Amino acid sequence: MNGPGKGTRDDPWRLKTPPGTSAYEMYRDESADPPQLVCQVGSTKLTYHARAIEDLHAWLKDQGDWVPLGAADEQRSAAEDTVEAWGRSVSNLVGGWYGLRKGYRGRFGMYLPPILEALGLAELEHNPRNNRMRAR
User: Fold this and answer.
1) Long-range contacts of 128-134 (CB under 8 A, 24+ apart)
2) pLDDT tens digits, 11-39
3) What's the chain's Rg over C-alpha atoms?
4) 4 to 35, 101, 114: CA distances (angstroms)
């Protein structure tokens, strides 16, 4: 489902959301401070801490089983015990939002899981709704 790419601006990862309904691209921008993952969804650009890939993988390993994604926009509350809730929790490794662009900090549970799957770090469900993931 998720295509090749080196994760650079010139050769981004080509990904699909977990349900497979939307395509988007993501790449690392190591020159940003802090280093960022840039997620381009149509004309919308979202940015996340680049360390989110490694941090999310470590957290999933600690969970030991399937975790619901729970994707939600920044303005909506995230369901408890989901990838989305962890991506904005004060108890995560960055002490809050992994999303960096105010107003577009949410959707962590939608756009981060496919890159972990593409990198072989996680298994991801691809149902129309209520998908989950777990560490490999």
Assistant:
1) 128/19, 129/19, 130/68, 131/18, 131/19, 131/68, 131/69, 132/66, 132/67, 132/68, 132/69, 133/60, 133/66, 133/67, 133/69, 133/83, 134/60, 134/63, 134/65, 134/66, 134/67
2) 999 999 999 999 999 999 999 999 999 99
3) 13
4) 22, 26, 12
The helix or strand, by DSSP H or E, that contains position 29, with its residue range, turns out to be: strand 23-29
Q: How wide is the angle at C-alpha 63 spanned by C-alphas 105 and 104, nearest 5°?
A: 5
pTM for the predicted model, two decimal places: 0.95
Give residue 123's identity as a one-letter amino acid code: E
Phi–psi pair at 85, nearest 5 degrees: -60, -40
